[in-house]
Hints:
Blueprint: E1 3-5, E2 11-13, E3 17-18, H1 24-37, E4 41-43, H2 51-61, E5 69-74, H3 81-95, E6 100-105, H4 114-126, E7 130-136, H5 140-149, E8 154-160, H6 168-176, E9 180-184, H7 196-205, H8 209-218, E10 223-224, H9 231-238, H10 247-254
Parallel strand pairs: 3-4, 4-5, 5-6, 6-7, 7-8, 8-9, 9-10
Antiparallel strand pairs: 1-2
Helix pairs in contact: 1-2, 2-3, 3-4, 7-8
Amino acid sequence: MKTIKLASGHEMPVFGLGTWQLTGDKCKEAVKKAIELGYNHIDTAWIYGNQEEIGEALKEANVDRSKLFITSKVWKDNLDYKGVLSQCKETLDQLQLDYLDLYLIHWPNPSMDLEETFRAFNELVEEGKVKSVGVSNFNSALTKEAQELSEVPVSVNQVEFHPYLNQKNLLKFCKKNNVVVTSYSPLARGKILQDNVLKNIADENNKTISQVALRWMLQKDMIVIPKASSEDHIKENMDVFDWKLSDENMEKIDDISEKHRVVDVGGVDFDD
Ligand SMILES: NC(=O)c1ccc[n+]([C@@H]2O[C@H](COP(=O)([O-])OP(=O)(O)OC[C@H]3O[C@@H](n4cnc5c(N)ncnc54)[C@H](OP(=O)(O)O)[C@@H]3O)[C@@H](O)[C@H]2O)c1
């Protein structure tokens, strides 16, 4: 799997499996199937309530831990020093892992002191429980604040990004500041799948709309984590590596005027 070098120095696979709303046996089977098909990067969060299932799937898949990249996120009510440490412990226990590859602040919370969060994050890195840290749903100003407060590099910002929410200013800011952007809801939960511009480009390239959308973001040096539970979707989404979109097609997708936001980030302004 192709990787990107993070500011922390660690490599992150550019493609992974999203797991929001995947729970129980369905989650376990999807994660096992994905790993069997070649996925090595799984995105979860404490709030998804599926870390135990993912832990079981990882165990049963029996893959060398060093070959996997596991991201989790601390929930916004637990950003105080003790809250971060205890939620990280719970996460590691549920996942049956000794360390996380990436630990993110799931949502900004203005009533919590970010300095405390990063004091805990830095400690987790020092102790080897977390390899890299980052943020999610942060705009440029908050990302900058996080960088100023953290001793270890803020490697990733995970935000909603897809052809109907092309956050080019935020992406530009993050690139300039060596923060890799992960696109969540890269398929806008299906909303982009009827788009005519994407459909024409997909037909021209003999690919599907999902593949075109994912490829568009990969060519912007982003990381994508589409969620899929069906085997067909899990397989289909992986076929984004041995072909390229032309500059012309990249621009056509950039120029799509339709706007749609899937996740309400209340109070946080995007794209800035
Ligand atoms: N940090 C955050 O605040 C945050 C917020 C939202 C999401 N996320 C992360 O990002 C991941 C992905 O986002 P998401 O789950 O919101 O939405 P998404 O990945 O944009 O869309 C998932 C939906 O698309 C369907 N799908 C997947 N591949 C498809 C294909 N090739 N053709 C047609 N349909 C396809 C899936 O169906 P099936 O399941 O039936 O296959 C599912 O219904 C999440 O799972 C989570 O890990 C993070």
